[in-house]
Design a protein that fits this description.
The protein is α+β, with helices and mostly antiparallel strands. It has helices at about 25-40, 55-65, 105-110, 150-155, 160-165, 175-180, 185-190, 225-240; strands spanning about 5, 15, 40-45, 90, 125-135, 145-150, 170, 195-200, 200-205, 210, 220, 245-250, 255-260, 265-270, 280-285. The strands form four sheets. It has a seven-stranded mixed sheet with strand order 1-2-3-13-5-15-4, with helices on one face.
């Protein structure tokens, strides 16, 4: 059975029906789904109940090499709420099932996800698809916003495209965490995930369109004076997050949203995170298998 693709925004975002991620996906369905991802970059699949962790992992493995271990260390956060290394716990809930409170180190770092970013840009092996599954949604929904980095690149002046064509940025997880209001990382934390460098402009591998590759993790332009590089990054971020490029998803329990990190940026929106539970679980595919 063919999938139904209903666009949700003129540039990016579509709701996919006729597919159930809780069961094995046939090759023909997967091919149609990837085609929809290439066109829309963000796809929403709704279910009446959330995926199990095992179903979530199985679906994600069909999309490519999946992350299977922690890529960094946060002091005091060794306990796992979800017993699967493939799943990144994007909730505000501790391992003992309590809502994090102000002053908690983990919550301080999580709040930086309200900045525009691309998953895993701070790692040498970039993320391709991310799949976020909604298990509990707080009142008001705690929406997620996405922006189209291919359309943002297309809209740049030719002079700017030429200026940035050969530039690279250094991306650091710890830079964005502090910028987003989190605590200063310890030496052990910094050493657990050193920065990575990536080109500012790349060719999206399946659509063959050029795209900006930015994130709040981007700390400076390689080879430039730090402040001059940050001024350029801020200019590009402001351009790429203009309203015409942005799609906003309002969550419902059972939703799975899959996005292409090589074509988009995204950010969480604020909610009363010390009062209401938000249980969101993410898997992340990578350009190739990650060994460390």
């Amino acid at each position: 059975m063919s999938l139904t693709v209903a666009p949700l925004h003129p540039l990016l975002g579509a709701e996919i029906s006729g597919i159930d991620l809780r069961r094995r996906i046939e090759n023909s369905e997967l091919a149609e789904f990837i085609q929809a991802m290439d066109e829309h970059a963000v796809c929403v699949v709704r279910h009446e109940t959330p995926l199990t962790n095992e179903q979530h992992i199985t679906f994600s493995m069909a999309l490519g090499p999946i992350e299977r271990r922690s890529v960094l260390k946060i002091a005091g956060a060794d306990a796992m709420r979800i017993p699967h290394h493939e799943i990144i716990d994007q909730s505000n809930i501790s391992a003992d099932d309590k809502i994090f409170q102000d002053g908690d180190r983990t919550l301080g770092f999580k709040r930086a996800n309200r900045l525009w970013h691309t998953d895993m840009s701070f790692h040498p092996v970039r993320a391709t698809y991310s799949a976020l599954s909604a298990h509990e949604v707080p009142p008001g929904g705690a929406d997620t916003e996405f922006t189209d980095m291919r359309a943002a690149y297309d809209a740049l002046p030719q002079e700017t495209k030429k200026r940035i064509s050969t530039l690279s940025a250094e991306h650091s997880y710890w830079y964005s965490r502090v910028k987003g209001g989190g605590p200063e990382p310890t030496a052990e934390e910094r050493n657990s995930r050193p920065p990575a460098q990536h080109k500012l402009v790349h060719v999206h591998p399946t659509s063959n369109r050029r795209a900006l590759y930015l994130a709040s993790h981007a700390s400076h332009i390689v080879g430039w004076p730090v402040q001059e590089g940050r001024n350029l990054l801020e200019e590009l971020m402001e351009h790429a997050t203009q309203p015409q490029f942005v799609f906003r998803h309002r969550w419902r329990v059972g939703d799975v949203v899959i996005w292409d990190n090589l074509a988009t940026m995204h950010r969480a929106t604020p909610f009363e995170d010390t009062r209401h539970r938000r249980d969101m679980r993410r898997t992340t595919c990578r350009e190739r298998e990650v060994l460390n």
